[in-house]
Amino acid sequence: MNAIEICNLKKTYNGTLEALKGINLSVKEGDFFGLLGPNGAGKSTTIGILCSLVNKTSGSVKIAGYDIDTHWTQAKQNLGVVPQEFNFNIFEPCIQILINQAGYYGVRRKTALERAEKLLDQLGLLDKRNTPSMRLSGGLKRRLMIARALVHNPQILILDEPTAGVDISLRRSMWTYLESLNAQGMTIILTTHYLEEAESLCQNIAIIDKGTIIANDTTKVLLQQLSSEVVVLYCEAVPNTLPTLPNVTLTKIDDSTLEAELSQEKGLSVLLQELGTAGILVNRAKNKSSRLEELFIKLVKV
Amino acid sequence: MFALQWVGFITLMRKETIRIFRIWSQTLLPSVITTTLYFLIFGGFIGSRIGKVHDHTYIEFIVPGLIMMSVITNSYANVVSSVFGAKFQKNIEELLVSPLSATTILLGYLSGGLLRGLLIGLFVTLISLIFAPMQFHHIGLIISTVFLTSLLFSLAGFINAMFAKKFDDISIVPTFFLTPLTYLGGVFYSIQYLSPFWRHLSFLNPVLYLVNIFRYGFLGISDINVPLAFSSLILLVFVLWTIAWTLLKKGIGIRQ
Ligand SMILES: Nc1ncnc2c1ncn2[C@@H]1O[C@H](COP(=O)(O)OP(=O)(O)OP(=O)(O)O)[C@@H](O)[C@H]1O
Ligand SMILES: [Mg+2]
User: Fold this and answer.
1) What pLDDT does A86 receive?
2) Would B255 be classed as within a structural domain?
3) Does A91 contact B at CB distance below 8 Å?
4) Model confidence pLDDT, tens digit, residues A204-242
5) CA distance to A96, A177, A292, per residue, from A102 (Å)
6) How many whole angstroms separate alpha carbon A140 and alpha carbon A157?
7) What is the CATH number assigned to the segment(s) A228-300?
């Protein structure tokens, strides 16, 4: 069964702004799914409709097999959501926020308290238990939002840019946490602007641009679409006239740096050999950017 | 299914109760102070110089109206500020994503308005005992009227909060409608003492009816037809409930 099924979904804001132009999307149960796209593409709008914060204009949405129009109670119970913007009651202490949210899903107070404590602990917020949410740092607020989304044990977790403004070590620990949830069977859908994040976490990726899905496949297949890859080479010395080699375009950046755009059939070891023959000794090499980033830039034309 | 909604309602009610007591100096204290001053000035200082109204001393006459006035303002203020606050800070989204029904959410917020309205009503009643003896003509009518009035103005507060876009919008109704209507609603005088023009104009004021039903419950005197007014009150509660419920269900002012 699909965890999420979106069919011909349209959203027009204020009767004029077409934010979603009829998208189709399905996310398999147990998937780790990335929804990518530039600013204003319609990611948050899609998520808003899934969690009923935004009224759709037309189309249908099923969550865990339940239609959000006809079986909204079941649909909502299966879903946990971490919104893009903080939406806490700023005066309420962390523990209270979690207990209340559990209560809104019918979780009794005793169970809610146990779960809340456990989640605060897992997300490293236990010492902030009684701190009002407004006194948390940005990164801690993000984590509190994750805890809040999980307090009713949903099967599906949707996160709208959960790692925006989160430092590297916190981001890594969040990734590990999300991966462990996914390993336990939870379906996870996330939007992010860090493509490295999507590349390392997501099994499947959809790219949305101007309200239309422009790519939707496994991460692996998407990356294979790239016909070339840019590698930065740090060399002993780079001569002014570069050799002409097959299936690669070389560009001199400075006296010790070279950029090589390799087509798919060209291996790196062959290139290094050829360069060595031409008298260019390579010390180190790195990918110019995340490969997904290149694909993204290629697909999403400004 | 029912269990879910019930737990949700209890959670909301608890949250609203905590809110009222956490900021008690804003929610509970002001009305107690103002009404005590009213009792002191109108009852004690000048009341003794004013003759009897319908065979009752002036303070006896104004006590029911003052209780009603504080119930009205507090029920209204509680719901409008709690709901608008949640809307402004966006934490109303916590409720919108949850499986709670519009009925449950509405009842949850109304419970806060009722609690604060009735609590203040009780405080003011107790304070009035210092200044005047209390008599009960029809206790059932007193209790049901105060309950329905608190409910009515809690609903009005909810509707106002749904439409409000900025903090100014939640003070428009109290400043331009609620305060004038309560002050001109026969709290401090019997409309029989007014000139025909003002008397007839007063009949257009809904607060007049509420104050008079309530006063009738205590003193057995009234400027209006009590059964008719009481039925209208019930009808009005139904009308506002339907409006508030529909706004919430459709997400007007809270969903895009
Ligand atoms: N409440 C709203 N009213 C009117 N237009 C809106 C509203 N919310 C979003 N939009 C518009 O809808 C389009 C899609 O916005 P959305 O927030 O879904 O983008 P996004 O992909 O989440 O972008 P970002 O990466 O910046 O978060 C944008 O053009 C945006 O201006
Ligand atoms: Mg967004």
Assistant:
1) 92
2) no
3) yes
4) 999 999 999 988 889 888 777 766 778 888 988 888 888
5) 10, 21, 37
6) 18
7) 3.30.70
Q: Do B97 and A76 touch (CB under 8 A)?
A: yes
| Residue of chain B with shortest Cα separation from A104 | B8
Closest by CA to B221, choosing from B163, B141, B107, B110, is: B141
A117 membership: H or E segment, kind and range:
helix A109-122
Computed on alpha carbons and rounded to an integer, the radius of gyration of chain A in Å comes to: 23
- Boundaries of domain holding B48: 2-250
Q: Cα–Cα distances in Å, from A105 out to A77, A101, B95?
A: 7, 7, 9
- Decide if A108 and B7 are in contact by the 8 Å CB cutoff: yes
Provide the sign of the torsion angle of the four alpha carbons A143, A144, A146, A152, taken in this order: positive
**B100 domain residue, yes or no:** yes
Instruction: Tell me, yes or no, if A115 comes closer than 8 A to chain B by beta carbon.
Output: no
Domain count, chain B: 1
A92 contacts A100 by C-beta, under 8 angstroms:
yes
Global confidence as pTM: 0.88
**Which of A11, A13, A39 has most ligand 1 atoms within 8 Å of its beta carbon, as the pocket-test mutant?**
A13
Query: Closest Cα to residue B224, out of B167, B194, B186?
Result: B186
Residues with CB under 5 A from ligand 2 (ion): A 43-44, 84
Predicted interface score ipTM higher than 0.90: no
In chain A, residues under CATH classification 3.40.50.300 are 2-223
Neighbours of B97 (CB within 10 A): 22
Q: pLDDT value at position B140?
A: 92
Using the Cβ of B252 and the Cβ atoms of chain A, whether some distance falls under 8 Å is answered with no
Inter-chain residue contact B4 with A73, CB threshold 8 Å: yes
Asked if A70 has any chain B CB less than 8 Å from its own CB, the reply is no
- Provide φ and ψ at A24, rounded to 5°: -120, 135
Within a domain: B103 = yes
CATH of A2-223, one of 3.40.50.300, 3.40.50.720, 3.20.20.10, 3.20.20.70: 3.40.50.300
What is the per-residue pLDDT across B55-67, written as a single tens digit (0 to 9) for each? 888 888 888 889 9
Residues of A in contact with B90 (CB under 8 A): 85-87
Confirm if B12 and B105 have CB atoms less than 8 A apart: yes
Residue B26: what residue type?
Q
For the stretch B181-231, pLDDT in tens is 988 988 888 888 888 999 888 889 989 999 999 889 988 888 888 898 899
Q: Does A53 touch chain B (CB under 8 A)?
A: yes
Judge contact between A288 and A230, C-beta under 8 A. Answer: yes
User: Rounded to the nearest whole angstrom, what is the distance from the C-alpha of residue A48 to the centroid of ligand 2?
Assistant: 9
Rounded to a whole number, what is the distance in Å from the CA of A233 to chain B's nearest CA?
A: 50
Burial profile A186-210: b = 16 or more Cβ within 10 angstroms, e = fewer:
bbbbbbbebbebbbebbebbbbbbe
| Residues within a 6 A CB radius of ligand 1 | A 13-14, 17, 19, 37, 39-45, 84; B 256
Whether residue B256 is contained in a domain is answered as: no
- Closest chain B C-alpha to A269 CA, distance in angstroms: 54
